[in-house]
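Hey,
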Amino acid sequence: MTGPESAPITWRKSSASGQNQGDCVEVAFAEVGILVRHSRNPNGPVLSFTHSEWQAFLIGAHNGEFDLPDGAAPQQSQ
C-alpha cells in the first residue's frame, strides 16, 4: 500500500475501539482511497474503498441506515 514514492499512511483509531473486547477499528486516508483494518492485527487484511464509496457509507451511517435492528446486540469478535 505504500511504496518508495508514496507518503506514509497514518492510521486513526475509532474512539469506540476497545470499549468491547475485539472492537478495534482503524481508518487511514490515502491517495488511493480509504483504508480500514483491525488495529489488533495491523499486518492482517485491509479493506479499501474509493473516496466516493466512503462518502456514500458515511451518509448512510449518519442517516441511520446501518443501525442494528431493535433489540439486536452487537456480535463479539472471537
